[in-house]
């Protein structure tokens, strides 16, 4: 770039040539055991530079070598010991470039409760670097995530990808960090405070312990004053109040059933016939609230004349 242009007499023009070799096809099966460091490809091309006005031309030879990146990680799984909120625990991760020609660049993603420092960097041929992975939980519980490292070639194109799984547990709240800003902040304020995990830290933790969240009334003790003491009772008093509520509820239910029973008997067959359980006198006509039927209609409103002589109701 540029592919064409105009150059004045005694003028110089810079032309940028980019080299993008094709991706290597990863072999499968038995061929995959071949050392990837031996995979190299040579590319060569000739560029013709012409001057249409003077009919002059010149050849420019371009050559390049494509190699397969070889970057390894010391660990692919990192397990952190129990850490309080507001605290941090660190583990080291080593990234190494095994190639003797190709420099590579790496960069990692960001995940919750974990941090990778440095998050990106450049590795020269046969160079390695230490990456510090920190576990900084912001809430209680078990945390698990995955860092994705993208490997870039010399020209910035992606050439590989690797993943590192991280996991940690937090079952206790720690002190909150005091944020210092403005003119009160110094270099010591932003200096990282690393707390590297001991090799036997995980072995000391018992796997039988299960996470138990702290009760709210234990974490935040209730305030005791005149108002709270007025409405606070002991267990025996609470049981007496509950028994009284149950007794009052049974009483209301009994009264409802009694009213419903009287209402049913007053309009039922027992009341009309004057049997036991009906009106006190045995005759419904003695009840002042009883609406007396007409004489010609007979009992239950059915005319007596419609029945043969000597036939009555049972």
User: Structural class per helix/strand content?
Assistant: alpha+beta
- The succession of helices and strands, N to C, reads EEEEEEEEEEEHHHHH
Helix content: 10-25%
What is the strand arrangement across the widest sheet? 4-11-10-6-8
Question: Low-confidence stretches at least 5 residues in length (pLDDT < 50)?
Answer: 29-34, 278-282, 294-306
Global geometry: elongated
Q: Which range does the strand content fall in? A: 25-35%
What report would you give on this structure?
The protein has 314 residues and is an alpha+beta fold. The protein contains 5 helices and 11 strands; from the N terminus they run βββββββββββααααα. The protein has helices at residues 201-204, 216-219, 226-230, 235-266, 269-273, and strands at residues 40-51, 56-67, 71-73, 77-79, 89-97, 104-108, 114-117, 120-123, 128-135, 141-152, 158-170. The chain has a 5-stranded mixed β-sheet, with no helix packed on it. The chain has a 4-stranded antiparallel β-sheet with strand order 3-5-9-7, with no helix packed on it. Strand 1 (40-51) and strand 2 form a beta hairpin. The longest helix has 32 residues, at 235-266. It is elongated, with a radius of gyration of 47 Å.
């Amino acid at each position: 770039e540029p592919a064409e242009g105009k150059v004045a007499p005694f003028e110089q023009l810079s032309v940028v040539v980019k080299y993008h070799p094709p991706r290597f096809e990863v072999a499968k099966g038995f061929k995959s055991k071949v050392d990837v460091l031996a995979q190299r490809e040579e590319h060569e091309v000739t560029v013709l530079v012409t001057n249409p006005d003077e009919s002059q031309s010149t050849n420019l030879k371009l050559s390049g070598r494509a190699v397969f990146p070889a970057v390894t990680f010391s660990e692919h799984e990192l397990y952190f010991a129990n850490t309080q909120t507001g605290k941090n625990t660190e583990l080291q991760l080593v990234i190494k470039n095994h190639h003797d020609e190709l420099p590579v660049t790496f960069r990692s993603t960001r995940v919750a409760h974990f941090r990778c420092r440095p998050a990106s960097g450049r590795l020269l041929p046969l160079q390695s670097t230490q990456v510090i992975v920190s576990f900084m939980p912001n809430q209680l519980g078990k945390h698990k995530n995955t860092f994705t490292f993208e490997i870039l070639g010399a020209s910035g194109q992606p050439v590989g990808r690797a993943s590192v799984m991280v996991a940690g547990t937090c079952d206790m709240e720690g002190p909150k960090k005091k944020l210092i800003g403005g003119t009160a902040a110094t270099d010591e304020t932003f200096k990282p405070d690393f707390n590297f995990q001991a090799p036997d830290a995980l072995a000391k933790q018992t796997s039988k312990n299960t996470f138990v969240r702290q009760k709210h009334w234990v974490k935040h003790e209730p305030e005791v004053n005149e108002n709270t003491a007025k409405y606070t009772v002991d267990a025996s008093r609470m049981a007496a109040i509950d028994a009284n509520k149950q007794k009052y509820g049974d009483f209301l239910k009994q009264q409802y059933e009694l009213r419903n029973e009287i209402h049913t008997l007053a309009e039922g067959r027992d009341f009309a016939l004057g049997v036991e359980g009906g009106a006190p006198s045995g005759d419904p006509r003695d009840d002042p609230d009883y609406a007396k039927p007409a004489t010609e209609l007979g009992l239950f409103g059915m005319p007596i004349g419609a029945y043969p002589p000597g036939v009555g109701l049972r």
